[in-house]
Design a protein that fits this description.
By secondary structure, the protein is α/β, with parallel strands linked by helices. Helix content is 32%, strand content 26%. It has one domain (6-189): Maf protein (Alpha-Beta Complex). It has helices at residues 14-22, 44-62, 90-100, 137-146, 173-177, 181-189, and strands at 6-9, 28-29, 68-79, 82-84, 104-115, 121-132, 166-170. Strands 1, 2, 3, 4, 5, 6 and 7 form a seven-stranded mixed sheet that branches.
């Protein structure tokens, strides 16, 4: 395993951390200071890639000249052509869940891998679909008050209690969690990394 490069995950997301651990990919965490701008006039898939690249570049800059790989990722939700990020208040979280109730939405995750030494870069974005059950006001109230919706895009996490809100999903499940592992591993291999 001597050609194993060090991997830095430029994210504080506990969900991405768990995905990489489950995939047995060794990494360390170094949170990016990049400020994401959700107002950029880009198509959703391009925006996800752009934001993930910004996060990865901010951390790669700190490690210039080092033969390490930096991974940035960004996940958001598209519902009726509108972007849903993380809610800032419980009231906002309730509104988001209410909107999604009984409807389908898309989850988009963009990721970027950068070699801090060579500058070689790979970016991809993956889209999956989630269908919410028709929820009662009581269910929404209970969910928002017992879960921690503020650190999650659209106020829910598919692999936690949020799974009770969902009727079905289409596409890559790990993408909905926060990092599309099949696509990520495919790109990682291009960096001559032994997993």
């Amino acid at each position: 395993m001597q050609d194993m490069k060090s991997i830095i995950l430029a994210s504080a997301s506990p969900r991405r951390k768990r995905l990489l651990e489950k995939a047995r990919i060794p990494f360390i965490i170094e949170v990016s200071s990049y400020e994401e701008d959700m107002t950029l006039k880009l198509r959703p898939l391009d925006l996800a890639k752009k934001l993930s690249e910004g996060k990865a570049k901010a951390v790669a800059k700190r490690h210039e000249g080092e033969d390490i790989l930096v991974v940035g990722a960004d996940t958001f939700i598209i519902f009726k052509n509108k972007l849903l990020g993380k809610p800032h208040t419980l009231k906002e979280a309730k509104k988001m869940i209410k909107k999604l109730s009984g409807n389908k939405h898309s989850v988009i995750t963009g990721f970027t891998i950068i070699n801090a030494k060579s500058g070689k870069k790979a970016s991809r974005a993956v889209k999956s679909s989630v269908y919410f059950r028709k929820l009662t006001n009581k269910e929404i109230e209970k969910y928002v008050n017992t879960e921690k919706p503020l650190d999650k895009a659209a106020a829910y996490a598919v692999q936690e209690a949020g799974s009770a809100l969902i009727e079905k999903t289409e596409g890559d499940y790990t993408n909905i969690v926060g990092l599309p592992l099949p696509a990520f591993i495919e790109e990682l291999k291009k960096f001559k990394t032994s997993l």
